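A student in our group prepared the protein record below, which I am reviewing. What it holds is a sequence and that sequence's fold in token form. My question to you is simply how this chain folds and whether the tokens agree. Do not assume that whoever made the record got everything right. I have pasted the whole thing underneath without changing anything:
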Amino acid sequence: MKAKFGIIFVLMSLAAFGRQTSSAGEGAAALRNPKHPLWSRPAPEVYDVQIETTRGKIVLQVTRALAPRGADRFFHLVETGFYDDSRFYRVMKGRFAQFGIAGNPEIASVWRDERFPDDPVRASNVRGTFAYAMTGPDARTTQIYINTGDQSRQDAGGFAPFGKVIEGMDIVDSLYSEYGERSGGGMRAGKQAKLFEEGNPYLDREFPRLDKLLKATIIRPK
């Protein structure tokens, strides 16, 4: 009898997970259509994202209550494969590591100006937290930075952290940083054009030592 109830519980859990995640076909369609219904679905209250990189594995834990809009978009960007095969293009040692422009220019162009409203700042930009990079109010899109130092001064600017690194902070610290702002800075000054227009081929040609984000996966929905 216990075994029977155990099987039922597992099946129910899998069904619930299935309702939270998209099919491959739906995910592919949503990736190219920011108006797809998928993007309006809420994310789990807490979920983990495993990021495989050329340096090793990083695990981010997202808490939706900290920034619901940001957590929802990140969940669906990960599940549709948006971040797969991209680059950590802006790494400032002791400050932050930034990623979030798709390596495929066709996908990057779709999301370049897909802004969504801000969340209130409910956590501080301390080491190990992460938030969306943006150029001003209600200007978040897909770009994420992980704080490698205390950047609490960002709180007053509306940068709302929505989780923290729970594994692999040493990997984040080790990401290649010698290019600094040259390989992906200038978000406010409009200097990221080539990243959007040419994608990975441009970065790999001009900045070959950048570390790669190989794959991002949701590994533990709550």
Remarks:
- Residues 75 and 153 are 26 Å apart (CA to CA).
- Residues 1-19 have pLDDT under 50 and may be disordered.
- The first helix runs from residue 2 to 20.
- DSSP finds six helices and nine strands in the chain.
